[in-house]
Automatic annotation (TrEMBL):
Protein name: Pentatricopeptide repeat-containing protein
Native source species: Adiantum capillus-veneris
GO biological process, one term: RNA modification
Matches recorded under SUPFAM superfamilies: TPR-like (SSF48452)
Gene3D superfamilies, alphabetized: Tetratricopeptide repeat domain
Keyword set, alphabetical order: Repeat
Amino acid sequence: MSTTVILKNALIDMYGKCGAMLDVQDVFNRMEIRDSLTWTSLIMGYAQHGETERVHNLFDKMIEAGMRPDQVTFLTVLTVCSHVGLVNEGYKYFESMVKDFGVAPSPELRNCMVDLLCRAGQLHEAVLLLKRSFAQPSFVTWVMVLDACHKRGNLELARSAFECALNLDDNHSSAYSAMSNILLNTQTWDDVASVDVMGAVIQACEDL
């Protein structure tokens, strides 16, 4: 990669973070040589400013230009899909990532897809995706599912996610807090008391 390309990629990234999209596009248009990072930086710039349709169009143009998207590219487009609830499009990118480009689904990519499904209320699909994963979901991932169960009032799935979270880390108050809120919302009073006691003990230990 030439020094010129590296510098111009850095300019695109900087202008994008500053919201100077006219400057971003100007630098991009003037580049005679572009690499995958050039395209990814351009896509990230528009993604940061909520230009969903342009992000999808640029991704397609990136492929047409013969560039291979990487984990950062896919994380960017999946995050956009998550924020606007484009479940079908998100699935398309997630499946294409592995099948067409051989990009391994990192924990960040998997969590992004789970977040997309949870935001759309497709909690069972999110859990199914986690159970199909080769890598074990993290504690943070299960707490994310718990929070989604809280918003959707899904007690049955919340119990399962709570158990999975505790199997990974039973000394963190966030899981107890999330589960307690779900039980309160569903008026499951007996369980609330036991979860609150455990959560209070864990919180006290964390504060020491």
